[in-house]
Amino acid sequence: QAAGDVGSQVIVAQDVTPEENDVKQLSPMMSRCGEQAGRQPRRWVADAGYWSDANARLEDEETELFIATTTDWKQRKQLREKGAPRGRIPAKATTKDRMERKLLTKRGREVYRQRGMTIEAIFGQMVTRGLTRFLLRGIEKVRAEWSLWCTTHNVLKLWRSGWMFRAG
Known about the structure:
By secondary structure, the chain is mainly alpha-helical. Helices cover 49% and strands 9% of the residues. The strands form 2 sheets. A two-stranded antiparallel sheet has the order 1-2. It has a two-stranded parallel sheet with strand order 3-4. The radius of gyration is 17 Å and the shape is globular. The model has no long low-confidence stretch (mean pLDDT 87).
């Protein structure tokens, strides 16, 4: 699991889980971001693996969620074919209907498009650097290994951007 900053592709939170899918990982990652980055982002963008009504209800006045409700290729096809929604949200709209509607708005399309340029790029860069599998065994050792990979990723991003730490 990793959460990345849109502009810089810096990893702001990371963790390893033995869970087989991501659906139960959104809330823990949001908490990890608060712990590791010191604050919550105003906006979370997640792929369809994180979709659930429970996750959609994590949205509040301080945190806006954009969670795909179908697999990515289906989502992209749907976005190309449908125009932006008009009119009021139907009173009988489900949580899923509301999220799909949000993703179809002009703003929703733009925000969700940033996901591919952020987290997918981060994971692609990890593979390019040689991470195709973990070398250590056991959840705690794999967490340490993943943390090291994420730290070196961030150091490289900061170094390449010309960022310098100045004490005092």
